[in-house]
From TrEMBL:
Role: Accepts the ubiquitin from the E1 complex and catalyzes its covalent attachment to other proteins. Involved in the formation of multiubiquitin chains. Signal the protein for selective degradation.
Residues at the active site: 89 (glycyl thioester intermediate)
Tree of life domain: Eukaryota
Listed GO MF terms: ATP binding; ubiquitin conjugating enzyme activity
Provenance organism: Jatropha curcas (Barbados nut)
UBC core domain mapped to chain residues: 4-164
UniProt key word DNA-binding: no
Keyword set, alphabetical order: ATP-binding, Nucleotide-binding, Transferase, Ubl conjugation pathway
Family affiliation: Belongs to the ubiquitin-conjugating enzyme family.
Protein's name according to its UniProt entry: E2 ubiquitin-conjugating enzyme
Annotated EC: 2.3.2.23
Length: 166
């Protein structure tokens, strides 16, 4: 199983190196471990995150693509769909099949057709339009809804800090 996952991840890495995608860069954390990727997401234009450089670690399970990776920001980020510890919470990273809580359709959850590229593009889309209906960070979601100016200040601080880390 792990060798199949490893071959698929090697192919996806090669494809991304040959055809880089606007908005992010990706590579291995350690050349000897295809299951841990380092990703830098560039804050999307015309969003509060514009100009930011947000680092994350993508960890793939040995049965990838049957199960989703986990994605965790290592840069500070303030967002309703990112847990305070940096873990990203979006539907396509949830295990495949029916949602035990009934919030998501099976078609919105993980499917083996997803690639590193489609995952990161979904995260970029999440930055552009937060889902405050089922937040990972309740405080950020409340601010997003009720105190947008406070929310904007916190995001601006994260963007500034991400630029200082370069």
């Amino acid at each position: 199983m792990a060798s199949q996952a490893s071959l698929l991840l090697q192919k996806q890495l090669k494809d991304l190196c040959k055809n880089p995608v606007d908005g992010f860069s990706a590579g291995l954390v350690d050349e000897n471990n295809i299951f841990e990727w380092s990703v830098t997401i560039i804050g999307p234009p015309d969003t509060l995150y514009e100009g930011g450089f947000f680092n994350a670690i993508m960890s793939f399970p040995s049965n990838y693509p049957n199960s989703p990776p986990t994605v965790k920001f290592t840069s500070e980020i303030w967002h309703p769909n990112v847990y305070p510890d940096g873990r990203v919470c979006i539907s396509i990273l949830h295990p495949p099949g029916d949602d035990p809580n009934g919030y998501e359709l099976a078609s919105e959850r993980w499917m083996p057709v997803h690639t590193v590229e489609s995952i990161v593009l979904s995260i970029i889309s999440m930055l552009s339009s937060p889902n405050d209906e089922s937040p990972a960070n309740v405080e950020a979601a409340k601010e997003w809804r009720d105190r947008r100016d406070e929310f904007k200040k916190k995001v601006s601080r994260c963007v500034r800090r991400s630029q200082e880390m370069l």
